Amino acid sequence: MRRKKDRAVHSDIVRDSLNTFGTNVINTLIQIFSAIVVLSRVDPVINGLKAQVLLWGGGFCTVLSLSVNSSVVYYVARYKIENSKLSIEKLTAFISLVITVLGAATLFVLKDSPLFPSTPPSFFAAMIAYGLSSFVLNICMAILRGENKFKSYNVVNLTQQILISALAVVIAVYPSASLWVWGTIAISLAMIVFSFYGVLRWNGTKPRPAPEDDFPVKTGKMVGYSLKSHVSNVLTYANSNLGSYIVQGIAGIGEYGVYSKAITVMQKIWILPDAVSQVILSRIAGMKDKGGQLKLAVISTKIIAYVTTAATFLILGAAYLFVPLLFPMYKGMLGPMSYLTVGIIFISCSKVLGNSIAAYGRPELNILPTVLGIAANILFSILFIPPLGTNGVALASSISMTVQGLSCMIIFCIFSHTAIYRLFLPSKEEIAAVKSAFSIKRR
Question: What is the dihedral of CA 132, 138, 406, 402, to 10 degrees?
């Protein structure tokens, strides 16, 4: 009976991962279409202003949210929504207030600094609005993940991307940074309503927690888990975006617009790692079999390593072929893209392993890799920015992501008593399964 149940769980994981991956692939294709439209019609300055609002608004959401969304996924998956609803409501209201107040105070202090030499005053309000709407949307989406409502989760993601791409087409016809920014915020607000509908909607019987987990979750307990995740999440955000803040400060808004596109294109490689990591956290948290947890984490990381490596070089090759011919205003993005290649691959693997570690209930183990990553970023930025400029920023970011990814792998292997080669090399069992699948097809 247990084997049948385990097979059902693994089938659900494969189904949800594939559905999420498929949705992310469609999203990426739509994004590529809108990127082509934008790159061919929109001046880098307009793109830079829009990217600036998303960078700072997203930063406020990440830094001030206490990573409550990760706690929401874990506790909703384990204790169910009935036991965690009150704590989620309290934390959402409190953190929304914190983002509004501290975000506004930060921008008031920095508004006359070199970071914002040409930013319109209304865009400061947009940064707060974007950070706030992003936070609330993340909470709603975390609930959907915790309840394994990946169909609703994917529909919301796909709808959001379609609307954002439609907005990009409008911007290509009527270039306006203000319209682009406030339109993006309006889409986030609409998706909050859409995702909340998915949270309320149920088909069939609501799942019940295990008897030992059937009690109300205290707010302090959720905050405690969140804080253990928060340090690594903030440092990961800082490690991934430090280069963007540096380029914004040392170069003009136009050059930042070009650099931000390089980052955006390379991050499309994360569609599969993001899909798997989103599914794996709630699934592993709900599994009781430690052997099954380990097997799922290892094989997921292995697949991510293979697919990400191939996708990275395909995207880089396509960029070198088409960008100079079709989008000459943005040909400066090719250098940063090349330097980011290796780091993107390693950080992709750490996305899956980091969420696997968090699903074991030990998110604090992710702190050390992120500390090492940000330290490497600062050190190599000092070394490489003077001689290489924005390419030096990208190189430092790539080295830091590599350091973070490798250290995350080592910590996972020590924690789970797993040989590190198992994260990359296929086992005899996996090779036999592939051979069997092909032999069945030939028959």
Answer: -50
